[in-house]
C-alpha cells in the first residue's frame, strides 16, 4: 500500500501541523454561522453526518500519527478520547453561541463513528506497518 507507506514516512512535526490545521478546519466549519455554511454547501449533496464522520476520522488518524512513537495503545486511547471530547465541546458551543447552530446528539454519534473507524484502521492496518 504505497499511500500508507508515504503517509507513515512524513516527519513528526508535519503530522502535528496537519493535525492542528485539520482541528482548526473542524472548529471553523462547526462554529461559523449557518448562513455561511449554506452558501458554501450550495450545490453539494453530502450528508451532514458523513461530513462529521470524516472530520473526526481524519482528526483521530492525524493525531495518532503524531503521537505514535509513544506506547501505541495509550496513543490510541488518548487521541480517541481527545477527539470525542472535542466533538462534544463543539456541540455545546453550537448550543451556547449565537450563530444559529444547534446541539445535535446525532452529530456526536457520527463523530464517534468516524473515531471508531479510525481506531479500527489504526489497529488493523497501521500498527502492523509501524512495528
TrEMBL record:
<protein>
    <submittedName>
        <fullName>VanZ family protein</fullName>
    </submittedName>
</protein>
<feature type="domain" description="VanZ-like">
    <location>
        <begin position="46"/>
        <end position="123"/>
    </location>
</feature>
<feature type="transmembrane region" description="Helical">
    <location>
        <begin position="50"/>
        <end position="67"/>
    </location>
</feature>
<feature type="transmembrane region" description="Helical">
    <location>
        <begin position="15"/>
        <end position="38"/>
    </location>
</feature>
<keyword id="KW-0812">Transmembrane</keyword>
<dbReference type="InterPro" id="IPR006976">
    <property type="entry name" value="VanZ-like"/>
</dbReference>
<keyword id="KW-0472">Membrane</keyword>
<keyword id="KW-1133">Transmembrane helix</keyword>
<feature type="transmembrane region" description="Helical">
    <location>
        <begin position="79"/>
        <end position="96"/>
    </location>
</feature>
<feature type="transmembrane region" description="Helical">
    <location>
        <begin position="108"/>
        <end position="126"/>
    </location>
</feature>
<dbReference type="Pfam" id="PF04892">
    <property type="entry name" value="VanZ"/>
</dbReference>
Amino acid at each position: 500500500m504505497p499511500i500508507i507507506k508515504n503517509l507513515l514516512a512524513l516527519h513528526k512535526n508535519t503530522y502535528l501541523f496537519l493535525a492542528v490545521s485539520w482541528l482548526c478546519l473542524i472548529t471553523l466549519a462547526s462554529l461559523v454561522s449557518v448562513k455561511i455554511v449554506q452558501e458554501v454547501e450550495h450545490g453539494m449533496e453530502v450528508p451532514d453526518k458523513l461530513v462529521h464522520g470524516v472530520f473526526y476520522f481524519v482528526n483521530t488518524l492525524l493525531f495518532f500519527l503524531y503521537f505514535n512513537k509513544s506506547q501505541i495503545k495509550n496513543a490510541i486511547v488518548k487521541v480517541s478520547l481527545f477527539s470525542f471530547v472535542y466533538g462534544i465541546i463543539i456541540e455545546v458551543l453550537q448550543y451556547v453561541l449565537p450563530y444559529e447552530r444547534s446541539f445535535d446528539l446525532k452529530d456526536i454519534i457520527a463523530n464517534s463513528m468516524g473515531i471508531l473507524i479510525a481506531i479500527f484502521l489504526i489497529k488493523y492496518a497501521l500498527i502492523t506497518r509501524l512495528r
